[in-house]
Design a protein that fits this description.
The chain has helices at 40-68, 71-74, 76-84, 87-98, 103-119, 123-143, 167-172, 191-199, 235-243, 274-279, 303-316, 353-356, 361-376, 393-412, 429-433, 435-438, 449-457, 475-488, 508-514, 526-535, 538-550, 554-563, and strands at residues 4-7, 9-10, 15-23, 158-162, 178-183, 203-205, 219-223, 228-231, 254-255, 261-268, 285-289, 321-325, 382-387, 421-426, 444-447, 494-497, 518-521. By secondary structure, the chain is an alpha/beta fold. α4 (87-98) packs across α5 (103-119), α5 runs antiparallel to α6 (123-143) and α13 (361-376) packs across α14.
Length: 564
């Protein structure tokens, strides 16, 4: 029998081969007894006990996930605790118990009602349906004394197949045991996809109902590069999957085949990600997200705590550059102690540099002091400071003035502080359109394609219904990138990219041709991108970019990329 491929969505540039283990966690509840036979008080007590036990489990899982995967990913469990204690959900369960349902059935009916509501919404709200399912299933297991499937102890070489994997499920997976996973539903921004990238597990999501045809015990290949689940794989496919999921690590900086330097750096969200990034051959850090220092706590970190974190980052890359993005909160990053306003559309509201120059100005200055002290106290590496969500030249001038003032204050205190590289993220259409003016005030641009594509195309990046519109390969997105690199031509300003687009090796040649000379990404994809850079010639890359910029639609650009 010849091999058969089930196409899905590629999540990680890794491949794995193993034996199928289906994961079907749904609790099977029997028909409820007659209402008059239900002890409502006992059922309420059972529900309250299950909620308390679930909260304790969630707190423990959050701690483990933060340690293994990172704070950003672990934050999803905070949302689960909120759902667990949501008054509307609790009252719905209480009402159903009062009407004569056992606690388990009341939980299922109540949660399913909310799951249906959220599933009909868009973007981030639709993703909350999976969070609700996760909390529902946890409560049902506790209420029915069900045994939790131990995904952490699967046989070595298992390939997990499931309709969907919740955050709790995915956080259990052991990369040493699991050869990969594939799901019926899901997209690139799903929790399962995010965790797969963080844990370096081969994964394909969104395969569809055809995945149900695969039986337990079959040997399959999960090809995270092509986005295929391969059934009845032939010997060559199996060997390719086993022989090297990713390119060999290259520790040295790379150039194109004709000698153009291209820095390949890593995006880092927690201190735990620094060493793995260096081990994967990252030349430095192209995006150091500082939010991890500010979330999940009752007050802001002081200057010394921040100093220690920034110094560790700089010392991890003694020969490289560490680009630190100043605090970027607001939007989908709430910080309770900052008393962020409730906004109808927080992505277009008070976030990023707008807060640093406004209500968070004291925090901004403290952060800059910690950064400059860390840079002054290390004899290695180099620091670059980057502003998020810039839209006007006035913001850049004001922020630069604050930075220069901090340098002067530290010098007066006897600290050997110097002005670091100073740059801005290009993640709004305004910044791209004003790049020719902004270039006079900065040392570098770093293009954040996740938000840039979202704002250019008016298509929320978490909304699967408009995923094609928000694709990086849309002509308007490429033209916004080109406007940025064109503005920097003939100047000393370098242009990098720290969005998801930078980590796709299929786009490396195009990005080099567009003028990008620094690419920053998940550490997982650093070896792949370095290999692709080494194979690229500047002449061919620029010719590809010229054709792509002349394209009228996304399909034409995709065809060009497939031919390159």
């Amino acid at each position: 029998m010849s091999e058969r491929r089930l196409p899905g969505i590629d999540v990680t540039p890794l491949s794995g081969v193993g034996t199928v283990v289906w994961y079907r966690p749904d609790a099977d509840l029997s028909e409820p007894p007659a209402p008059e036979d239900v002890d409502a008080e006992a059922e309420r007590e059972a529900f309250e006990l299950a909620v308390a036990e679930a909260e304790a489990e969630l707190e423990a899982e959050r701690e483990r996930t933060a340690e293994r995967v990172g704070e950003d990913e672990a934050a999803v469990f905070d949302a689960h605790v909120q759902f667990l204690n949501d008054p509307q959900i609790a009252s719905g369960v209480e009402e159903r118990i009062t009407d004569g349902l056992p606690a388990a059935h009341a939980v299922r009916e109540t949660f399913d009602e909310f799951v249906e509501q959220f599933s009909g919404m868009e973007g981030k709200m639709a993703e909350r349906a999976d969070d609700l399912r996760d909390v529902r299933d946890r409560l049902l297991r506790l209420l029915t004394d069900g045994e939790r499937v131990d995904l952490a102890s699967l046989p070595e070489g298992s390939v997990v197949l499931a309709e969907r994997l919740t955050p709790s499920d995915t956080a259990q997976l052991d990369p040493e045991r699991v050869a990969g996973f594939a799901t019926v539903t899901g997209g690139r921004t799903s929790h399962a996809a995010i965790f797969a990238r963080s844990l370096a597990i081969p994964a394909v999501v969104g395969v569809g109902e055809d995945l149900e045809s695969v039986a337990d015990g079959e040997t399959v290949v999960v090809d995270g590069r092509s986005g295929d689940v391969v059934l009845d794989p032939d010997e060559a496919t199996v060997e390719a999957a086993r022989g090297g999921a990713a390119d060999d690590v290259v520790e040295e900086a790379v150039t194109t085949a004709d000698g153009t330097d291209v820095e390949v750096a890593a995006n880092v969200g927690t201190p735990q990600e620094l060493a793995p990034a260096a081990e994967r051959g990252a030349d430095g850090v192209g995006l150091f997200r500082t939010e991890f220092l500010f979330i999940e706590r009752d007050d802001a970190p002081d200057e010394d705590e921040q100093y220690a974190a920034y110094r560790d980052a700089i010392e991890t890359f003694p020969d490289g550059r560490v680009v630190v993005r100043t605090l970027d909160v607001g939007g989908d990053k709430p910080v309770p102690y900052l008393d962020l306003p409730e906004e109808e559309n927080p992505f277009l509201g008070e976030r990023g540099i707008r807060r640093s120059l406004g209500p968070d100005s004291d925090l901004f200055e403290t952060q800059l002091r910690a950064l400059l002290r860390a840079d002054a106290d290390t004899d290695v590496g180099s620091l670059a400071v980057m502003l998020p969500l810039v839209t006007t030249v006035e913001e850049v001038e004001a922020a630069r003035g604050v930075l220069e003032g901090v340098v002067a204050d530290l010098a007066a205190e006897g600290v050997d502080a110097t002005m670091p590289e100073f740059g801005v993220m290009i993640e709004t259409p305004a910044a791209a359109l004003m790049a020719d003016v902004l270039v006079e005030h900065v040392d570098f641009f770093s293009i954040g394609t996740n938000d840039l594509a979202q704002y250019v195309m008016a298509a929320e990046r978490g909304n699967d219904a408009v995923a094609e519109l928000g694709d990086f390969r849309q002509p308007a997105v490429l033209r916004a990138i080109d406007a940025t690199t064109t503005a920097a031509e003939g100047t000393d300003v370098w242009v990098g990219m720290c969005g998801e687009m930078a980590g796709d090796p299929r786009l490396t040649e195009l990005l080099v041709g567009l003028g990008l000379r620094e690419l920053s990404m998940s550490a997982l994809t650093v070896p792949d991108v370095k290999a692709r850079v080494s194979e690229t010639t500047l002449e061919d890359a620029e010719a590809l970019a010229e054709r792509a910029l002349a394209a009228a639609d996304r399909d034409e650009i995709i065809e060009l990329l497939e031919q390159s």
